[in-house]
Structures are given as C-alpha cells and as structure tokens.
Amino acid sequence: MKWRDRKQSTHVDDRRGRSGGGGGRGLPSIGTLMFLWPIVKPLLRSKLGIAVVGIGAAAYFIGPSLLGMGGSSSSSDIDPNSEDAAFIKTVHGDIETVWAKIFAQAGQRYPVPELVLYTGSTSSGCGPASSRMGPFYCPADTKIYVDMGFFDDLKNKHGAGGDFARAYVLAHEVGHHIQNLEGTLDKVETAKHRVTGNDKNQLQVRVELQADCYAGVWANHVQKQFKALEPGDLEEALTAAASIGDDRLQKQAQGFAIPHTFTHGSSKQRVEWFARGVKNGRVQDCQTFGG
Question: Structure pTM?
Fold first, then answer.
C-alpha cells in the first residue's frame, strides 16, 4: 500500500510502553473459551453487560456484543516512533478522510473515533482491554483499541501478512463505529433480547459482515482518492478476511467447526462481503440485514 507522505491521524492515543492500567491478566485461548462458554455465558451477561465490537471469534466470548478481532497477540514492546505505528496512524487518517467525505455527501458530519495503541493491557470504556482480545471497537467510549503485536500473529499464526491486511483490520473496526453512528448496534442489541440461541448468533454475524463490507467501501474510496493500492493489496485483505472466519478459527482451535455457533461469519462470507464493498464503494450495498 502506498502510504508515505500523507498525513497521520491526530486522533490517536499512543499508550504503548505505559503500565497496564486495568487489564494485566491475560485471557484464555479461543479453544478454551469455546468449551467453557456454556458455563461462563450467564455470568458474563448478568455481571459484565459490556458491549464491544471486533473482528474475530474470541471477542464474542467476553460479552454479549464484544466486537473485537479475536485471537491473541505476542504484545512485544514496540518503539512508539516505529514505522508500523506510522503506517497505522496514516491509515487511520485515510479512513477519516474517506468517511468524512461520504458523510458530507449525505449532508452529515463524521465524528472521528479515537485510535488507542497499547501494549499488553489497558483500560477502556468497556472494561479492561488485553492483547489477547485482539483489536476491538468500544461503543461506550467510541474508541478503537489495538495492540500492534496482533499483526504479527495475523501474519505468523493465520498466514495473513502484508500492510493492506493490517489496513483491512482497522477499516473493519471503523466499520463498527459507522454502525454505532447509524444506530445499528443499538438496534441489534434490542433485537437480541427478543430472540434466543442461534438467532442471536445470526444477528451478530450480520453485524460483523456489514463491518467487513464497510471496510471494502473504504478500500474502494482510498484507491479513488489516493491511488493507494498496489498489486496484491486486495489479495492481502481477502486473505486476512478468510483467515479469521469462524469456521477456520474453530477448526484451528478444536479440529472442527460448529456453524450454528458462528458469530462473525464463515471465511467465504467474510470474503464475499468485503469484496462487495470494494466493487462499487457504495454503503447501500452493505445491507446484511436484508432490504
């Protein structure tokens, strides 16, 4: 991805290198969470009640609507002035520019979400944040939380390397911010109280697939505005989308997939919805809820 010589976002809280601030203990692995879910589910819903949104399966097991990337990161200490940080801050700036223009065309103002970069653990408006949660969006404080060690795991554990894979991850989280602004997240949480079991999971899948589609919309526009894409970039994003499908993550964790427990969509679904957003760059093409 061509990104140098463009402005970096100023809406970034770089907490890397600071002490944890509320999330010191690690979280269990995806596989462990899956097997413990029938036990911890009622406790989580009665005692935590948090709402966080992200891109992978692990997040779902921490709260009713935890919208996070899933998986875990090695959380190595990173130089606050590193090139990786410069890249992700520039991508956040690109995302601001694209969505501000889309909102302006609809006669609206785009409130920019703050990006929090941290190491190991930190605090969030949705409770303690750990690197093991993966990137996530917290609707309570409208912030996106990223331990950048996650990107090493995305490459080394899931085979999804490349700079545009990282850009896709951030664009997905901003997709949840768009849903929050649209009122979609609140509507889904209300709808979940009227259904049970698999129907709740399906609602959450639709939330995640729409965020994937919004990430595709951004990819379309960032190419139009900045000519930012290089050969292979879209393939990197598609590989990342496929690598964090529920079916693939479950097979990695326990050797088999359980479709009715999916909360983020299969690899095929995630790829298809991201590609749909890329094709025409139209928000209206992202109607995962029908219509």
Answer: 0.84
